[in-house]
Write a structure and sequence with these properties.
about 160 residues; alpha+beta; Immunoglobulin-like; 2 domains; five-stranded mixed beta sheet; four-stranded mixed beta sheet; 3 helices; about 35% helix; binds copper (II) ion
């Protein structure tokens, strides 16, 4: 029994020495370790700032309301429907002039969404493939037209922008 204990104690002692040895070695590092410990502390505020900064970046919507240019319907992307929607999903027919973020909702392979009007605005998605990207557009007073290029007869609309 004592024979087994002795090696254990020796091992523990060795471990303690090793630990103290490490601690001693690290005792020189505390100076360098403290800054690294405060760094994580600083990164926490940075992380809390990050969402705020992101919110600041997405303040673009704050500069102008978000619009959605949709073709088809949520249930049927190939439906022969086109609409310019506001943030609540309601079709818009008039808008105040200003900056807007326009998000395409084009999941159709045979329709597209094109918006044209004053200020040289001419933005569109491809007919083939889907496009759910977001762009910025500046709308000036006047009449803007949105249309599906392949089906202008059945898929088009207008929005009046007021100054
Ligand atoms: Cu179409």
């Amino acid at each position: 029994m004592t024979a087994t204990r002795t090696p254990l104690v020796a091992l523990l002692a060795a471990a303690a020495l090793a630990l103290s040895g490490c601690a001693g070695g690290a005792s020189q590092a505390p100076g360098a370790g403290e800054p690294s410990q405060s760094a994580p502390g600083q990164s926490a505020p940075d992380q809390s700032d990050a969402p705020l900064a992101t919110g600041g970046d997405s303040a673009a919507p704050a500069a102008g309301a978000a619009l959605t240019g949709m073709v088809g319907t949520a249930d049927d992307p190939e439906a022969y429907e086109i609409a310019l929607l506001d943030e609540t999903g309601a079709p818009v027919t008039t808008l105040p002039a200003g900056e807007y973020t326009l998000t395409f909702a084009d999941r159709s392979r045979m329709h597209n969404f094109r918006l044209t009007g004053p200020g040289g605005v001419d933005v569109a998605t491809d007919v083939a493939g889907s496009d759910e990207s977001t762009i910025e557009v500046t709308l000036e007073p006047g009449t803007y037209t949105f249309v599906c290029d392949p089906h202008p007869g059945s898929m088009q609309g207008e929005v009046e922008v007021t100054g």
